[in-house]
Amino acid sequence: MTPPLVASPTPAPSGPGAGVIAPPSAPTRWVLQAADWAVDRPWLLGVAAALLLAYIAGRDLLDGWRHRRHADRARLVTVAPPPEVDPHSADALWANLHGTLTPSRRRRLLYGSPHVVWQYTWIGRQLLISIWVPGSVPQGAVEAAVRAAWPGAACTTDDHASPPIPLDVPAAVGGHLLPTAAEWLPINIDHDNDPLRALMSAGSQLKADEYACVQVLARPATARRAARARRAAGRLRDGKTSVPAINPAAPLLWLIEVFQTGSTVRSRTGSAGAAPRRDPGVERDVRAILDKTAHPLWTIGVRYAIAKNNHRGGSRPEARLRGIADAVASSFAVYAGRNRLAHRARMAQPVAVLATRRLGAGFLASTPELAVLAALPRDLAVPGLDRARAKSMPAPVAVPTGGRGMKVLGDAEVGGHAVALSVADARYHLHVVGSTGSGKTTLLVNMAVEDITAGRGTVVIDPHGDMVLDILDRLPASVAGRVVLFDPDLP
């Protein structure tokens, strides 16, 4: 018969130093002393808050100075789409602009990176697509990138960039579009049809006294922001959260573990349970992040505003403007994928915000994502949009540019080189072909005025009389004695 087991108490520790708690190590002692020193000085919280506010104010002042420097001598490039638009041309444009807008490391740290603004602007039913280019970008660089991406597009540059919506409109609504998930998760870029069709349809419902503008602001992302997105993929692959979580109790738990004996820590570590189950969608997210970060990355922002110029007394147009604004914002739902632009943050003064064209923190986007947000419509018929009538080509090298015995006709649209015609060739029969409003009469008027001021004999026969009046308005007073006018209406 087995005798019953009797529990015996654990023998007390014996020997020199038994029952004495070991003093903390040197690093732990320093941490405790620093904590006691900070607790005895509560005014340090006020100093820390003041330093934080000073940093925020200084950063805002620096960003404002950088934006004003880039915005000085800014220009607006209006793009007329070609009759047919290649779906992959927008990718080529933004890949080209990524290299154009990326400054050197020294200039980026001092002045920041410039940004461009792609604009869809409706003035009544008329749609204009333009690019706001800061003055720090070399002249003609963006126009060359547009023509390289869409060879048949026509670019018109305005050296004085005006606000997209008049600043004195009495009623306006607008907002920002932000991603609903983490910025490193991509939106949908695979579309069978033109993804801009919903936006074009929403803007086509404006009346004659209404305005609308959608801005896509973009600048090259910094290397730190791109590395942060890649680290997020690595953390997800390791079974962690994409962003390191901040636990307020972590310092207290660390102090508790410091004072615990090694055996207790080992028992806690050894008794850890099995690894938690992984989300089956993690691998998909990791691949999506890696695919997105494989392309050149941008920091972008999406804004929209709807305004009305005048309204009758007592009427409230905000309800209609809010409905159009919701339709414009909802048109971006076609890009919904693993991420989507569905978070709408309203703006208190949308017209003034769009006029400044200032890009803040923004969110991360790849070049293919930016190319589906800021591109030329691919549909042949777009309400209110005028396409380029003829393909712009640079003047051939053999065409004269001026000199003795030459008549300057004008400047080429591509390259800006002068185009001239010799006086001897101008005496032959010359056909000027072009559609209505293309400038045929203006060309003939300039040629006649140049011959008259140069002392060459010129005969102008105009059955309507408008061109003769234009010539007379442009002639200097010194040639009045050499001009003979035959007018059948005069007695």
UniProtKB/TrEMBL annotation:
<dbReference type="InterPro" id="IPR027417">
    <property type="entry name" value="P-loop_NTPase"/>
</dbReference>
<dbReference type="Pfam" id="PF01935">
    <property type="entry name" value="DUF87"/>
</dbReference>
<dbReference type="InterPro" id="IPR002789">
    <property type="entry name" value="HerA_central"/>
</dbReference>
<protein>
    <submittedName>
        <fullName>DUF87 domain-containing protein</fullName>
    </submittedName>
</protein>
<feature type="domain" description="Helicase HerA central">
    <location>
        <begin position="419"/>
        <end position="466"/>
    </location>
</feature>
